């Protein structure tokens, strides 16, 4: 088969244009991520997590503990907004496996996962004397039941923006909670 020079040149030009379009899309995504990063002061995210937890706890919307979280999620995952998980301690493989499965379940059910730096800080914010590595923040609704619209307070909106910025990222940043 004989291919003339014009066909080869046309093919090369289309490849170059395709590469340019991909580069432009990647650059655009990178710029968007940088804009979001600039908008969110990540030193404040830990304080925002703390505020959201305290407010949700005052409204009885926090489920504390890995077992309790798994139990609630198995019955009605649609009622959960955030799953906060402390970085697992080295050597506890059983808990680590539960947490990995819980994280996958949360992503599958569109529940925002926020990884925090320390189970001790998380436990103190929640007012617990027992070390807790996980908690769920339940949604609030405009109606008496889940048939109404979902409501978010200011802190929850900020956390949703933070989570959305990293939803498709292969690795999520770990939020440093303030010392309590």
TrEMBL record:
Residue ranges of every copy of the Ribosomal protein eL8/eL30/eS12/Gadd45 domain listed in the record: 49-138
Similarity field: Belongs to the GADD45 family.
GO cellular component, one term: cytoplasm
Biological processes per GO annotation: regulation of cell cycle
Regions annotated as coiled coil: none
Name listed for the protein in its UniProt record: Growth arrest and DNA damage-inducible protein GADD45 alpha
Lineage start: Eukaryota, Metazoa, Ecdysozoa, Arthropoda, Hexapoda
UniProt-listed SUPFAM superfamilies: L30e-like (SSF55315)
InterPro entries (UniProt xref): GADD45 (IPR024824), Ribosomal_eL30-like_sf (IPR029064), Ribosomal_eL8/eL30/eS12/Gad45 (IPR004038)
Pfam families tied to this protein: Ribosomal_L7Ae
